[in-house]
Fold this sequence. Notes:
Layout: H1 12-19, H2 23-36
Helix pairs in contact: 1-2
Amino acid sequence: MKYPQKQFDKNAAQISKETGRHYQTVISWVHKYNNEGAESLFCQKVAVDFDYPFF
Length: 55
C-alpha cells in the first residue's frame, strides 16, 4: 500500500463525516488515487441505450 508522503489536516473519518460518505468509501478513494492518479476519481461518461420506453 502506498500512502501520501504529505501529512493532511484531516483523516478519513473526519472527511467521511463532513461529506456524508461511509468511512470505507473515503478509504477506497484514497487507494484509487494512490494507485491510478487523480484522473481516476472523475466521473466517466457511459453510453446509454435509449431503445427502452420510458414509463
